Amino acid sequence: MFRCFFAVTLIACSLAAIVPDATETEEFKQWSGRIVGGHEATPGQFPYQASMRSAANAHFCGGSIINRRWVVCAAHCTNNRLLANTMVVVGAHHRVTGGTTHSVERIVNHPNFSQISLANDISMVRSATDFVESASVRFIQLEPNFIITGFPATSSGWGQTTNPGSAAENLQFLHVEVITNEECRSRLTLTNAARIGDTTICVSSPDGQGLCMGDSGGPLTYGGRLIGAVSWGVPCGTAAPDMFARISAVHGCLAATVPDATETEEFKQWSGRIVGGNTATPGQFPYQASMRNAANSHFCGGSLINRRWVVCASHCTVNRLLANTIIVVGAHHRVTGGITHPVERIVNHPNYSSITLANDVSLVRSATDFIESETVGFIQLEPNFIITGFPATSSGWGQTTNPGSAAEILQFLNVEVITNEECRSRLTLTNAARIGETTICVSSPNGQGLCMGDSGGPLTYGGRLIGAVSWGVPCGTAAPDMFGRISAVHAWLVSVIDV
Ligand SMILES: *[C@@H]1O[C@H](CO)[C@@H](O)[C@H](O)[C@H]1NC(C)=O
Ligand SMILES: *[C@@H]1O[C@H](CO)[C@@H](O)[C@H](O)[C@H]1NC(C)=O
Q: Rounded to whole angstroms, how far apart are CA atoms 271 and 399?
């Protein structure tokens, strides 16, 4: 697993600096290097423990020795570090004296390390000389499995030297409990909870002590294997968990999370903008639904998939009252015409995230049957993963959050489905981090209509529904538009629809 990780990381290892950097926050700085409630280790108790030092022998981070040349560390420790100013000390008990010093010949930061979310906060440091095993120098195996919970896990370290007065002289350790990521999120602020992804593993001290055992880059072990590298935490005494990079996940996919996407200015500006679309003819999109409030005000689009169910976007229907939701089918105009149906059930995807907009698909059940006609028809769900394709078609009226710019008559746009990789490459790092398996991106091939937006509405390809309009970035930036990917939630859709 790590051989593969190296191969990838050697090619691309530097990340451009970006927006709100977690490592720049006061919270993060306060946490760094605090050690509370730890026990002093006996010499040789943690032979895999490494001390990362500057050329002046100042300890700056911990590390774990995994074989005769490599140390696992945290990317936030080694990002932008010069080889000439980095050494590895092994077999040490004291933070300043003793141990064997090795110079460093290579630093490989995880290519998907994010300073924003601290996802993939892992790095590898290669010694220029072999570590020689002894009573105080040994290697620790990597844990390939996803550890959900566990006790006791053990973390050790000296604390960072950014606050030298409080750093430990002798190696300290602490037994901690691995908690689920769900529990972890529930014990953090929303901003911090958003940083807990698949590449994070959280621990809690079961007795309420030592909650800020921190020695960045250092080991977290469980069952004799390395399961984490110390990543970040929040200030001591708040009963909050501490976060480690999850060893089993370092080769997994990007699971970055950032503050709630639906709250950003970008998202709000995008909502409901329709540019460069064409006016539909009546009945051209018989599966198009208009989701309205009780006052007949259109708030989102939808797609009719059978005589009772409409596919919509979770961000449209989350927290919506049934009594304030109606479905209008067979409409051409945004306000007049069509047939109105009351709603009897709204089912949001259980894994919808307003943070990442993953699984942004929902189902709305009409209380009465939709009657097929010239202007009312159903569209089939696409069960297959569409990688690329042209033309795909999206239609809608635009949201009424900005009524002046909403279309009176249904609009449509032919767009091109692009790969998720291309999509990421055309977005800012923050937005790229939101493109996952449950997203499908489109681009307008001629540079127009890039912000065709009518949340919840259809994206079709080859006569089937492949997406529900989810989100985008403001118009004119040549950025793609994002949809909830139907094939990714197909099994769920089928399990819910019952007609
Ligand atoms: C980094 O992210 C990209 C895009 O998600 C992915 O293809 C690649 O495998 C990731 N790299 C590693 C080493 O996980
Ligand atoms: C939601 O996520 C959980 C945990 O990953 C998974 O077990 C479950 O199948 C998901 N539910 C759906 C409907 O995809």
A: 7
Beta bridge partner(s), residue 174: 155
- Does the Cβ of 432 fall within 6 Å of ligand 1? no
Could you tell me where the beta strands, DSSP code E, fall in 160-287? 172-179, 200-204, 219-222, 225-233, 242-246, 278-279
Kindly list the distances between the CA atom of residue 214 and the CA atoms of 241, 401, 464, in Å, as whole numbers in the listed order: 11, 46, 52
CA distances from 414 to 40, 153, 277, 391 (A): 66, 54, 8, 6
Query: At a CB cut-off of 8 Å and minimum separation 6, what does 25 contact?
Result: none
Collapse the DSSP code of 380 into the 3-class scheme (helix H, G, I; strand E, B; otherwise coil) and give the result: strand
Ligand 1 site-directed mutation target among 3, 254, 431, most atoms within 8 Å of CB:
254
Looking from the CA of residue 351, the nearest atom of ligand 2 is 1
Q: Measured between alpha carbons, how far is 34 from 234 in angstroms, rounded to an integer?
A: 10
Using CA atoms, how far residue 207 sits from 85, 174, 239, 240, in Å, is 39, 11, 10, 12
Q: What is the DSSP letter of 462?
A: T
pLDDT tens digit sequence for 206-222: 544 443 434 788 899 99
Protein residue closest via CA to atom 8 of ligand 1: 253
Task: Please state the atom number of ligand 2 nearest to the C-alpha of residue 359.
Answer: 14
Model pLDDT for residues 219-276, shown as the tens digit of each residue: 999 999 999 888 877 654 456 777 888 887 773 322 222 233 444 555 444 444 445 5
Phi, psi for 431 (deg, rounded to 5): -75, -35
Ligand nearest to the CA of 180: 2
Q: Say yes or no: CB of residue 180 within 6 Å of ligand 2.
A: no
CA of 251 to the centre of ligand 1 (A): 7
d(CA 332, CA 395): 11
Q: State how beta strands 380-381 and 464-471 pair.
A: parallel
Q: Tell me the C-alpha distance between 279 and 451, whole Å.
A: 16
| Residues 484 and 359 sit within 8 Å (Cβ to Cβ) | yes
> What residues have CB less than 8 Å from 169, skipping those under 6 apart?
94, 95, 96, 158
Q: Which residue has the tokens 């530097």?
A: 14
pTM strictly above 0.85? no
Q: Read off φ and ψ for residue 10, nearest 5 degrees.
A: -65, -30
